[in-house]
Design brief:
264 residues, 4-stranded mixed beta sheet, 10 helices, 10 strands
Length: 264
């Protein structure tokens, strides 16, 4: 009986360690992670912990555009599995981000028209991971996500990608509308997944293309939709009028592949 309890306790401890494998806590470890230029999703600081070393860390984080969030100290206790976090923790990315230029260069190196998926404030890390997995499977050259109000390359997203995060390029940008403008200037046609768009099978998705997938609840934001060249929709004949974001991304991504193969 005691052995079973010990095994169960060890299993729970291992799961907690896995869950927190992207959490760096303590003032010196967080400072070194920020100073080294490591990809950081966000920094969590306990309410009221802004003096001394913490202020230095936060100032450097702001210079790098890292998202900073004030949280209840008990949340840090839970996330870190310890009370010895000194009022600060960093959520590290499981992989360094690429740039949009690196994604486009990768397409050119392969002699292929760029194929990208743009995620407009997608919040669920499991959706992000599933889309990264789909992107890798269909041969998309990269995924673009927003820096704020968006899931990032956390442990949960990496796990949901089933290893695809190691191969697929992911760029994180400050401003999705500006990024869309830059892509259009380089000849990429950008289509938003939107119920007011044309039927996806009737839309020419060959050539340089980017598909925009919106937030799980709000869809593609009005400003992002305005910047796109056009919108495409999936037919809905059931009682629910929308698909899960990762499912919609998968259907549209494979339509791009189908049309490209048909054109060969």
């Amino acid at each position: 009986m005691e052995k079973n309890k010990e095994k169960a306790s060890q299993k729970a401890s291992n799961e907690q360690n896995k869950k927190n494998s992207d959490v760096i806590f303590g003032r010196n470890p967080v400072f070194e992670a920020v100073k080294s230029g490591r990809s950081i999703e966000s920094i969590l600081v306990a309410n009221g912990s802004k003096g001394g070393t913490v202020s230095v860390i936060l100032a450097k984080a702001k210079q790098q555009g890292i998202v900073i969030k004030e949280v209840n100290p008990k949340k840090l206790d839970y996330m870190c599995g310890s009370t010895n976090h000194q009022g600060i923790a960093a959520i590290a990315a499981v992989k360094d981000y690429s740039t949009v230029d690196e994604i486009l260069d990768y397409a050119r190196e392969k002699g292929e028209d760029p194929f990208l998926l743009i995620l407009d404030e997608l919040e669920d890390p499991h959706n992000l991971g599933a889309i990264i997995r789909t992107a890798e499977c269909v041969g998309a050259h990269g995924v673009i996500i927003s820096q704020r109000r968006s899931a990032g390359l956390t442990y949960a997203a990496g796990k949901a990608s089933a290893g695809a995060v190691e191969y697929e390029k992911v760029a994180r940008v400050v401003n999705i509308p500006n990024t869309i403008e830059q892509l259009k200037e380089q000849g990429v046609w950008v289509y938003a997944a939107d119920m007011d768009g044309g039927l996806y099978t009737d839309t020419d998705l060959t050539g340089p293309v980017a598909i925009v997938i919106g937030n799980e609840g709000k869809g593609v934001s009005p400003l992002v939709r305005k910047k796109c060249d056009a919108a495409v929709r999936l037919p809905m004949t059931g009682r629910i009028n929308s698909l899960n974001a990762s499912v919609a991304a998968g259907v549209l991504a494979y339509e791009v592949v189908r049309q490209r193969n048909a054109k060969k």
